[in-house]
Amino acid sequence: MDTEAQHTERDPSSDTDSSGTEEGSRSARVSGDSGRAPEDSGRGSEDSARGSDDSARGSEESERTPSWRRTALVGGACVVFLLLLSHFVIQPFLIPSGSMEPTLRVGDRILVNKLAYRFGSEPARGDVVVFDGTGSFVREQPRGNPVTGLLHDGAAALGLAEPDETDFVKRVVGVGGDRVVCCDKDGRLTVNGVPVQERYVMLGDRPSSVPFDIVVPQDRLWVMGDHRSQSSDSRDHLGNPGGGMVPVDKVVGRADWIAWPFGRWSTVPGTDAFDAVPAPPAGGHGAGAHG
Fold first, then answer.
1. How far apart are CA 173 and CA 239, in angstroms?
2. Catalytic residue among 99, 136, 231, 234
3. Phi (first) and psi of residue 254, to 5 degrees
4. What percent of the chain has pLDDT above 70?
5. 170 is catalytic
6. Lowest mean pLDDT among 25-34, 193-202, 267-276
7. Domain 92-267 - what CATH class?
């Protein structure tokens, strides 16, 4: 017990006035009750503080959970957006071989413009294109596991996996109606009788080690790699159905940009090699080959 409180209870007036003594005792007891009140109020504030902490933790946890959901939703939306973008507008492709050197190198990731030929335009001589070689470069293959195929297509669409074995990247050398011949007396490739200075061809390569003389059917393309000695292109499929010609509707798009690695970040170089080539003669038809 507090000593000061004992002295307060001993009121000097209690010896002479009993009523004063009684009132003093009452006042002492009241003061003792009021002394306990702050303790109770402290406990109440402590309980309320604990309650507020618990509610704060609860609100923090409730805020944390939706943030993960928002992150997942945003991530999913980004993936869907990229897949739609790659399906309709721009698709990345990984270059797995050196058939297009020096223009494109092994490991390059190119961005293919899928809108380049969507609104009436068609591939032109000199364009670097990606196409589906099914039916021209490769035979139809039975479809495998659909789930595995879907995962691979999604990874390839984002440029994280090699493209399908039916996808190829080559340069357009002849379009429908063109007569493409290799080689003239000076060892040059000619298109519609005009020699073509192919400065994009790999240094040291000849235009072709296989002679040929073909007329490209309408709605078809004659394509070749820039690294002629390392490229399996239209020349290698002369005896296949279609004679190595690629249907225009099998073209995925035009390779316009090199996106990776950063040191090679640029547009795919264009060429003026075919500027002097005249339009094919009207009514040109048929296809032939010598090799």
1. 19
2. 99
3. -105, 135
4. 61
5. yes
6. 25-34
7. mainly beta
Beta pairing class for 189-191 and 179-182: antiparallel
Q: Within a 10 A sphere around the Cβ of 116, how many other Cβ atoms? A: 19
* Cα 162 → chain centroid: 13
Give pLDDT, residue 5.
42
Which residue reads 């010598």 in tokens?
290
Helix axes 146-157, 18-88, angle to 10 degrees: 90
Which of 7-21, 34-48, 183-197 has the weakest average pLDDT? 7-21
Greater pLDDT, 102 or 85: 102
Cβ-contact 169, 128 below 8 angstroms: yes
| Cα 132–Cα 126–Cα 94 angle in degrees, nearest 5 | 45
Grouping H, G, I as helix, E, B as strand and the rest as coil, residue 109 is strand
The pair of three-digit structure tokens given for residue 73, joined into one six-digit string: 């939703």
pTM here is: 0.67
Mean per-residue pLDDT, 6-32: 42
Active-site residue identified among 136, 170, 231, 234? 170
How, if at all, do strands 194-195 and 212-215 pair?
unpaired
Position 74 confidence tier, pLDDT thresholds 50, 70, 90: confident
Cis bond upstream, residue 102 (ω within 30): yes
Nearest CA among 251, 85, 228, 84 for reference residue 176: 251
Give a three-class secondary structure readout of 175-240. Answer: CCCCEEEECCCCCCEEECCEECCCCCCCCCCCCCCCCEEEECCCCEEEEECCCHHHCCCHHHHCCC
**Are 215 and 89 spatial neighbours (Cβ–Cβ below 8 Å)?**
no
- The question of whether 136 is a catalytic residue gets the answer no
Look at residue 239 in the predicted model and tell me its pLDDT: 82
Instruction: Give residue limits of the domains in the chain.
Output: 3-86, 92-267
Average pLDDT across the chain, whole number? 77
